UniProtKB/TrEMBL annotation:
Name of this protein: Transmembrane protein
Entry keyword set: Membrane, Transmembrane, Transmembrane helix
Annotated transmembrane regions: 21-37, 57-79, 91-108, 128-151, 163-182, 202-220, 232-254, 266-289
Species per Swiss-Prot/TrEMBL record: Fistulifera solaris
Length: 350
């Protein structure tokens, strides 16, 4: 007779979450493909040959991302546990993220006038601007979830320490997008030949996105491969990143010399990076000071074991520990009614 654990239910929840993420990635890619076709007035297959190379590249990349996402969605639907969290899903998610990351600069490049246009990259096609970003975000969510499952994180239990892994991953993606967007604008404004305030702020955005994203990626790899928590280091790192991005959003979005005064890729993801950094600081500070005392999901037994303490149980506690227990025998599940542990075996009801 053994106790029944909920590990299988939690693993099923992880599979369902991954399947939902694959579905969202597929849906966003499909909408992006339709938006791209409408943006260039593509009426038939014969019009593809007449399109410029950059338009062909955008359409081909979105189509590949759609195919990979659809394959992941169907595989997660039919293979389930045999697919979720294994090497195939990790590789598939990584390729999907890579394709989106490679094509996004072409989509948001104002020179292509597909989704954005103008000096500051104002949005001219909302669907083609929004849904590729949503497709990239959904692919990143799938990748992070598959890596967490592959490295056996958050499958058997709800681990608060590794829940910030998703936020670190989102911050890395957002920082890299800021770096790429600022780089394109830096080149378009011919800042190599000019020394202006706007060019200096663009240069700050480039370095901030590159260094911040790199440091966040290093921390993610540390958390993934060596899950020993260094709460103070994480707190200091997240506060430093938030401080840098506080100056970043001020330089990038405020004043007359701001390189992103209107709603654009650089504007949106600069603020996204700032709020993600604030979220990382809040999580790190909470874990740093909240881990000193037990919470509702950190039992008194675990807290005492962690601090090498002993707990004296009263007779009332012993009686409470026998209430509502569920055990499994060869014939099925038997419930133990409210009683003491000592005579629980005499009062089991099937």
């Amino acid at each position: 007779m053994v106790y029944y654990h909920s590990t299988r239910n939690e693993l099923s929840s992880e599979v369902d979450s991954q399947h939902t993420s694959w579905f969202m990635a597929t849906a966003f890619a499909l909408i992006a493909l339709v938006a791209a076709a409408k943006a260039v007035h593509l009426d038939g297959l014969s019009d593809i040959k007449n399109q410029p190379k950059n338009i062909k590249w955008i359409g081909s990349a979105i189509l590949c991302a759609l195919g990979l996402s659809l394959f992941g969605f169907l595989t997660a639907l039919f293979l389930r546990h045999h697919f979720t969290g294994n090497m195939l899903e990790c590789v598939l998610a990584f390729l999907t993220v890579g394709i989106w990351a490679a094509v996004m600069p072409a989509i948001v490049n104002p020179k292509n006038t597909v989704a954005t246009a103008g000096e500051f990259g104002q949005i001219v096609n909302a669907n083609l601007f929004l849904f590729p970003w949503l497709g990239l975000i959904a692919a990143v969510v799938v990748l992070v979830g598959s890596l967490r499952t592959f490295f056996d994180r958050d499958v058997a239990r709800n681990d608060k320490n590794s829940s910030s892994f998703v936020h670190w991953g989102a911050f890395v993606a957002s920082s890299l997008i800021v770096m790429m967007s600022a780089s394109h604008q830096f080149e378009d404004m011919l800042c190599d030949d000019e020394d202006t305030t706007m060019c200096a702020r663009l240069q700050y955005a480039i370095w901030l996105g590159a260094i911040g994203g790199f440091l966040a990626f290093l921390w993610m790899m540390w958390d993934l491969c060596l899950p020993t928590r260094l709460g103070l280091v994480e707190t200091v790192l997240s506060i430093a990143i938030l401080t840098a991005w506080g100056f970043g959003v001020a330089f990038i979005t405020f004043s007359n010399h701001a390189p992103a005064p209107t709603f654009s890729t650089l504007y949106f993801f600069s603020w996204a990076s700032f709020f993600l950094a604030a979220r990382l600081v809040a999580s790190a500070v909470y874990r740093l000071f909240g881990a000193a005392k037990p919470s509702h999901d950190y039992s008194e037994d675990d807290y005492a074991k962690h601090n090498e303490q002993e707990i004296d149980y009263s007779e009332e506690d012993n009686e409470e520990s026998g209430r509502g227990a569920v055990v499994v025998d060869d014939e099925g599940i038997a419930a133990v009614p409210p009683t003491s542990v000592a005579n629980a075996h005499d009062q089991m009801y099937k």
